[in-house]
Specification:
This protein has about 230 residues and is an alpha+beta fold. It has helices at about 25-35, 55-70, 140-150, 155-165, 195-205, 215-225, and strands at about 5, 10, 15-20, 40-45, 75-80, 85, 105, 110, 115-120, 120-125, 130, 135, 170, 175-180. It has one domain: Alpha-Beta Complex (Spore Coat Polysaccharide Biosynthesis Protein SpsA, Chain A). It has 6 helices and 14 strands. The strands form 4 sheets. An 8-stranded mixed beta sheet has the order 4-3-5-12-7-13-10-9, sandwiched between helices. Strands 1-2 form a two-stranded antiparallel ribbon. A two-stranded antiparallel sheet has the order 6-14. Helix 2 packs antiparallel against helix 3, helix 3 runs antiparallel to helix 4 (about 155-165) and helix 4 (about 155-165) packs across helix 6. The longest helix is centred in the first third of the chain and has 19 residues, at about 55-70. The radius of gyration is 16 Å and the shape is globular.
Length: about 230
């Protein structure tokens, strides 16, 4: 049974990345899922903890979700981290999702504000960080698996280069999913990201410069690898 994310976007499964010792966050995300009647459509991924390189552990944990998506031949999935907090679900939009989408971000932090407005409901993302909530199609699954199977780069950066700059990636506007304020296992900080995410997204929403040259740099890289067997 598929889950409606917004008009014309459906996912076959929802994955939640959760570290076994993060009991409070598991309870938090479970309440979110119950609130929006999503729990029965959800698979929890027991995250990999790497105290020496926590960002690398995060990458490998998401890789587990990609592998399960491939095993089940899902067409599209939504991947959440356990600190994800929805503003609503399904997401209301005033203009349609671009038909060529491969990755959608309900929540994101546009770090360098190089992303730009696509329409009244979406930004074209080329520099969005955070992996707490995103949706991917199976067409790019082999590429995702290859980029995360043996990598020492944080998932946030791997999703920017090459993913966001290789395939059409869009972020909902206004943002639909934030990160709960808590002490990060990766950075050790405790930041209220919501006002920062909103501020950066608004800058990009008003951005008239379309930085598509950033995407051109990575297209050949994607084309070369997308059809290779894993």
């Amino acid at each position: 049974m598929v889950v409606k994310v917004c008009e014309n976007v459906y996912v076959d499964r929802i994955y939640v990345i959760n570290l076994e010792f993060q009991i409070e966050l598991k309870e938090f995300i479970t309440k979110q899922l119950e609130k929006f009647c999503l729990l029965e459509h959800t698979t929890f991924i027991n995250a990999i903890y790497r105290p020496d390189k926590p960002a690398f552990g995060c990458t490998l944990s998401h890789h587990l979700a990609y592998e399960d998506m491939k095993k089940n031949n899902y067409n599209a999935v939504m991947i959440l981290e356990d600190d994800c907090e929805f503003t609503e679900f399904p997401f209301n939009i005033s203009q349609p999702v671009p038909v060529n989408w491969m990755i959608l971000y309900p929540g994101y932090l546009v770090y360098d504000t190089l992303s730009f407005k696509e329409n009244n409901s979406f930004l074209r993302l080329v520099d969005a960080r955070s992996s707490h909530c995103y949706i991917v199609k199976k067409e790019i699954l082999n590429y995702l698996i290859r980029m995360t199977m043996n990598d020492n780069i944080s998932l946030d950066m791997r999703l920017i280069c090459p993913m966001q700059r290789a395939v059409p990636t869009y972020g909902f506007y206004p943002i639909k999913a934030y990160q709960k304020k808590h002490t990060s296992v990766i950075g050790g900080d405790c930041v209220d990201w919501k006002p920062i995410m909103d501020e950066k997204a608004l800058i990009c929403y008003n951005n008239t410069t379309k930085n598509l040259q950033l995407a051109e740099e990575w297209k050949n890289h994607y084309i070369e690898l997308e059809n290779k067997k894993i």
